Amino acid sequence: MLVLPSDYDVDKEVANIDLCVTEKVDGLCMFSFNENGAALAAEKMAAAGIPVIVPDSVGQALNKGSDLMACVDFDWYKMGEMYAEWMAENTTGDFVIITGNFEHYPCIYVNKGMEEKANALGKNKLLDIRDADYNPDKAAAAAEDLINGGLDFETIFVMQEEMASAVVRVLKNAGKLNNPYKVITQNGQEMGIELVKSGDLQMTISSSPGLEGYICFRMLYSQINGKINYLNEQKMVPISAVLQADAQNPDPKVIIPWHRNEIFKELTSEYFPELMWY
C-alpha cells in the first residue's frame, strides 16, 4: 500500500497522482483539499483504467467529465441542520461560527445547512463566521475577539474538536463557559467526547474517519474483485449526534470509534451490505 501525503500542496498532489499512474496501483482512494485535484485524479485514473474513490469532496468530483467509482462523504449539510435543530430546542440566543477553512467544502456545506435550517426554524440567527484554518490558536483568537466584540449571541459552533478545546479554554479563563456562551462542535474523537461528558461541550457529531476509510477500502477491494460496479455514485457514511447522556453511556453505534473496531463491520453491513462478501 502506498500512502502519499500532499500536505495541502497542489504541485505535490499532482505529482502523487502521476506516481500512482506510473506505479500502476490497483486502486486509489484520494482525499483532496480542492475539487480540481479530485477531478484531475478522476481524469488520469480513468485514462489508466484505475478505479478511484474520493472521500470528503461533498460530491464535487462527480460530473466533471471523467468517471470515478464514488464520492464517499459524511452528510455535511445534514450535520449543519442537526446543529440548527439542537440550538432551536436548547437555546434562545443567536450563534456564531468558527469554521475550518472558507474554501473547504465540508465547512461550506455545514455552514450552509446550519444557516438555512436556522432561518427556516426562526429561533436562532447566524451573526458572524470566522475562518481559523483548522488552527487551535487562531480559533482561540477568534473566540476572544467574538466575545469582546459587542455581538449578542449564545452559541459558538466550532468546526473541529481541537479548535473547540482551545475555544473552551478561552471561555473558561474569561469565566464565560456556559454562562452565557455554549460551544458545539464536530468530530467525535476521544478528547471531544470527554469534553461533552464533562459538560464543557454541549454537543458534537460523531463522524469517524476510521469508518470512512474502512468503507472506502472495502469499496475499492470489492470493485477490483468484480463484486460491485460503482460508477459516479455518492455514498454517505453514517453520523450521529452525541450529547452528554450519550458520552456517559457510550454506544459504539452512536460514538463511532476513530480507530479500527468490530463495529465497523456491523455498520458497513447495515449501510453497505454489498461490501460484506468476504
Automatic annotation (TrEMBL):
The record's family statement is:
Belongs to the bacterial solute-binding protein 2 family.
| Listed name of the protein | Periplasmic binding protein domain-containing protein
Q: Where is the Periplasmic binding protein domain?
A: 5-227
Q: Where in the cell is it found?
A: Cell envelope
Q: Which UniProt keywords apply?
A: Signal
Which PANTHER family does the record cross-reference, listed alphabetically? D-ALLOSE-BINDING PERIPLASMIC PROTEIN-RELATED
Is Signal among the key words of this record?
yes
